[in-house]
Known about the structure:
Layout: E1 5-10, H1 14-30, E2 33-34, E3 43-48, H2 53-69, E4 75-80, H3 81-85, H4 87-93, E5 99-100, H5 106-117, E6 137-141, E7 143-144, H6 155-159, E8 163-164, H7 167-179, E9 184-188, H8 197-200, H9 205-212, E10 220-223, H10 233-241, E11 245-250, H11 258-263, H12 270-283, E12 288-295, H13 302-314, E13 319-324, H14 342-367, E14 371-380, E15 383-388, E16 399-402, E17 413-421, E18 426-430
Parallel strand pairs: 1-2, 1-3, 3-4, 4-5, 6-9, 9-10, 10-11, 11-12, 12-13, 16-18
Antiparallel strand pairs: 7-8, 14-15, 14-17, 15-16, 17-18
Helix pairs in contact: 1-5, 9-10, 10-12, 13-14
Amino acid sequence: MKKHKAGMISLGCSKNLVDSELILGCLRDAGFDITSDEKDADVIVVNTCGFIASAKEESINTILEAARDRKDGAKLVVSGCLSQRYPEELRESLPEVDLFWGVGKHKELADAICALVGMQCGCAYSGARMLSTPKYSAYLRIADGCDNRCTYCAIPLIRGGRRSVPIEKLVEEAQALAAGGVKELTLIAQDTSAYGTDLYGKPMLAELMRRIAKIDKLHWIRVLYSYPNTIDEELVDTMVADPKIVNYIDIPIQHIDPDMLKAMNRHGSAEHIREITDYIRRTASDFILRTTVITGFPGETEEQFGHLTEFLKEHSFDRLGAFVYSQEDDTPAADMPNQIDEDVKQRRLKRIMSLQQGISLAYNKKRIGTVTEALVEQISGDIAYGRTYAEAPEVDGTVMFSIKNKGLKPGDFTMIKLTGAGPYDMEGEEI
């Protein structure tokens, strides 16, 4: 009997990518062959993002493209955040789609897809993900949902409140990933530094990292999406003390003006942001700090925007991402007065990114001449492309370096000397 083929198009963040990998694992267990060529697939799953307006637009365009390009008779399934949030509207506007699904319940989704193509499933699902990242690098989602209720954010409306995964289960998953060849493990959640507060009554990220760092085959452990209010000295000290935990942390501050933080319902204070970032810099001078900020939040004055830019000059971050405020349905900020014109938002965004380009370039130039470890991701002749501890997968730049060891392959680590710097990417040579 011919086996059906399933293809996946995953959109949005790394947290959504984990969902896509879980869906693929269930489809594989159900008896599907997985293909990377959507035009060859009998079923195409588009796992959507619905975070902000631009992500919604990308999701809709991708769905329409998949519907247009699929082979005759292929079924189209739409899952994820956008489908969870707007199920009825999507059904009315996208008759090309054969099945809509929200977030979670991956086994049930696989059963529904089997029924859609006339397959008999009845299998035992393993719960194992089918990794879509390179074999040597993977994400570990330590919690889903969020309790912060920032006034601009729809994530709690889509995914609900925080649900941390027990430490024992995460250690078990990390061990399985390491046994499968993963060397770099990136911990993710909507708010990683608040991990465990719902299960253990207090943040437990530091303890989780200590447990995971004991896994022999893991080489790098890094952390993304840590909200500043639950980052404390113990967490920083834990990261600095263990060589497996890279000195890199992503802290989305969104703003620094106290009135803006209050309007955004951001927990913690501007003073704490200053104190904890200063503590990190004092504790380890080579620590890489990444952040995200929002421009054009309702009511943001030029003076308040100026507070943000001055802070970024004085308490600068090695890496920074920025986006303009997006007026999202059913969020408190959507109904706030003094909404900012789009051109003002975009002008402020350009100012932030121009400022950060100079800051990032200055930080990277300071690294020239240093010797560091690099993870090889691609090789072309005598040139390799990869990352050091200072570059997170997918969100940061790359390092291009000449190699001497002809036996290097993707997934290997080697020592390099950094010799050149741009705002995002760097150059080096193997030593």
